[in-house]
Write a structure and sequence with these properties.
With 119 residues, the chain is mainly alpha-helical. The chain has six helices and no strands. α1 packs antiparallel against α2, α1 runs antiparallel to α6 and α2 crosses α4. Keywords: Hydrolase, Nuclease, Toxin-antitoxin system.
Length: 119
Amino acid sequence: MTRRRRKDSQHLKDASEHLQVLREHLARGSLDDALIRDAVSHRLEVAIDAVAKVSPELLDAEAPAEWPKIVAMRNLFAHQYADLDQEILQNTIDNRLEGFTQLVERLHETADANERPMT
C-alpha cells in the first residue's frame, strides 16, 4: 500500500494546532515552571517540524529570509536542550512567536489557494 503525501495545508494545520496548544500551556503558568517550559519548548519544536514538511517551493516563495532562522532556532531547542537557557526560550516566545504564527497563517492561506481545484 502506497502512502499518499500529505498536502501542505495539512502540515500547516498541524503546526497551527501545536501553536494553539503551546498558548494553552502558557496560559497555565510561566516558563519558571519546568513542566510548562518543557511542554512549550516541545510544542514549538514540533510546530516548526510540521512546517518543515511543507514543499520547499512554498517556503522559498513565502519565507525565504525567515525560514533558515526558524530552522536554526528549532535545532537549538532539539539538539542543545540541556544547555537551553530559559531566557532564550522566553525571548523567543515574547519576540518571535507572533511572527512565526503569522507566517504559518500566511503559508496556510497560500497552500489552501494553491490546492483548490480550478473551476
